[in-house]
Amino acid sequence: MPAERTASSHPLYLCAPVNALVEGIYEENIPLAEIKRHGDFGLGTFDDLDGEMVMLAGDVYQITADGEAHGVADAKHTPFAVVTFFEPTFRVTFDEAMDYDTFLARLDALLPSPNLFYALRIRGRFDLVRARSVPKQHNYRPLSEAAAEQHEFRFENAEGCLAGFYTPAFMASLNVPGLHLHFLTQDRLRGGHLLECRTRGVTVEVQMLHTLELSLPMTHDYLTRDFGRDTAADLEAAEK
Ligand SMILES: [Zn+2]
């Protein structure tokens, strides 16, 4: 492997396994201040599944169910966040316009192995971004049910940033498998969880990550839950 493709020494940090979220455990009460100790870049959600989270350069934004992005205080709580300190391993520019399938295939071809984690920051112009956010939920409502109430937004001819991660398929109980990206407009006023996009000209920065740091919540909800159920289908339904 060439030197410029050496994996980052920073771990990928998860404040809880995604399975806890899939099972409707939405109140882990982990402050953003704790998340920020582990990274300056990433995504997640907030307690009571109150919108989508995107973190860029240490700034956390909450994208509420109306698609608007709000800066949030460090005291705000999350049940699930994925972060790292972003230091791209390599960067590639896609100048041409691409539909979603072509874009995904090009991204896939960039990743040297499907068996590592990657952080991805994709900045530039998009002909279309289709994104969603979710309205605040009651604790214990299964994620697949909550996500069925998602609100969708369309951004046309938008400048902005997709931020997120690739996770190997066999780690689906810990983090959303495959690509998971959240969008934030250039003016940082709107965004959401990416459903589909068409790119016009973007720069893709990739950070290879070969270490995982996983915190397990110490809440009563987490400690007493049976995680024996196979949640793959529910997670797939909730994230697409
Ligand atoms: Zn998401």
From TrEMBL:
Coiled coil region boundaries: none
GO molecular function terms noted in the UniProt entry: acetolactate decarboxylase activity
Gene3D superfamilies noted in UniProt: Hypothetical protein, similar to alpha- acetolactate decarboxylase, domain 2
CDD domains reported in the protein's UniProt record: acetolactate_decarboxylase
Pfam families according to UniProt: AAL_decarboxy
InterPro entries (UniProt xref): Acetolactate_a_deCO2ase
Pathway of action: Polyol metabolism; (R,R)-butane-2,3-diol biosynthesis; (R,R)-butane-2,3-diol from pyruvate: step 2/3
Protein name, per record: Alpha-acetolactate decarboxylase
The organism of origin for this protein: Sulfurimonas diazotrophicus
